[in-house]
Amino acid sequence: MNAIRTIKVLGRWSLNRLQGKRMPLIAVFSMTHYCNYYCAMCPFGDPDKDAQMRLAMHRDLSTEQWMHIMSKVAPYVIWSIVEGGEPTSRKDILELLEHLKGLGLPVTMITNGSLLHTLDLDRLKHCVDYICLSIDSLRQESYCKIRGVKPEIFKRVMSNLMLLKDHNIKHYINSVITKWNAEEFITQEYFDIAKNLGIKTVSMTFVEDRADVNYSLLPDRSTMVKVCNSILDYMERYDEPFILIPPLYWEQIIEYGRVLFDECGVWKSIFVNADGTVMVPCWKYKDNAYNLLEHDVEYVWSREEWAEVKHCRECDVLACIWYSSQSPTVLANGYMRGIRMLIRKHLG
Ligand SMILES: C[S@@+](CC[C@H](N)C(=O)[O-])C[C@H]1O[C@@H](n2cnc3c(N)ncnc32)[C@H](O)[C@@H]1O
């Protein structure tokens, strides 16, 4: 059922492309302005949690508004990503995930994992395809430094990771590589611990430095090269844990210190903020927002402003932008890499 839906949506999208029309293919729903974490690399890490909570209470979409927007977006896309803020901090998160599933959309929820034990996991299992657990470091000390939380929270996240396993909920972990955890990738300890924990898939990306702060968390150039070489080495030697970000991303960073692409593909995702707005062409254009409560997807995607980022190269290492900006050949290679891994695993 889902495969037929995906083929239909992809077919329509390809026809639009042939006519030079930009349309989204992936939906990202940023469910709330609130996050219970303090990550230095993330704007949602704002330490003034009272103000953030007030903002969430005043500006977050209601359950009905989110359902309305999700229904509006669903016909255009083949996958949905639910994140935030911290999506699990919303009381209605399961209801909203169920709504998305009911629309026939595959769902990945990105979460810090600290509140998963408060959810009905048997219900969660039926309304997500994957949980992406953000675990930047598998060492308690570095994790707490990057995420600005106490050791008890790290322990809670690790025990919630085990809950996902116990409930057979498909999951992978994601790390943002900063100068505070780069060493763990150079020594490959991150992968070894992940493997010992029974984690089958990991994803990681270098931190994209924020423009609104006066510090950088990116490791220096020579450390970045060491990280990339080590990740490439691990990929070549081991199938597990499977590393989602393909070799080309790491190779480009070794060679150029950043990633390359011809045209920014930010328009391939529809990124809906917690108040229903979409910033066009991207989050750097805060004053140019259209609210999906008022406008249709077609109207927003036909704006001329999208052309403004065509030649923008401001995102140095952001993996999601890199991926959406790659040619169909690179994407097909990535797909085949996944299939090859699955075949190797099943044939022993
Ligand atoms: C904004 S968070 C929201 C979801 C949830 N609160 C969490 O921590 O997973 C979504 C993802 O973006 C990643 N992220 C945050 N800031 C980033 C940055 N500056 N560069 C790259 N990834 C970042 C997080 O680690 C997380 O995996």
From TrEMBL:
Gene Ontology molecular function: catalytic activity; iron-sulfur cluster binding; metal ion binding
Domain Radical SAM core: 21-248
Presence of the UniProt keyword Metal-binding in the record: yes
Record's protein name: Radical SAM core domain-containing protein
Keyword Iron: yes
UniProt xrefs under PROSITE patterns: RADICAL_SAM
Matching Gene3D superfamilies: Aldolase class I
Pfam families per the UniProt record, alphabetical: Radical_SAM (PF04055)
Keywords assigned by UniProt, alphabetized: Iron, Iron-sulfur, Metal-binding, S-adenosyl-L-methionine
InterPro entries: Aldolase_TIM, Radical_SAM_PqqE_MftC-like, rSAM, rSAM_sf
Organism: Candidatus Nitrosocaldus cavascurensis
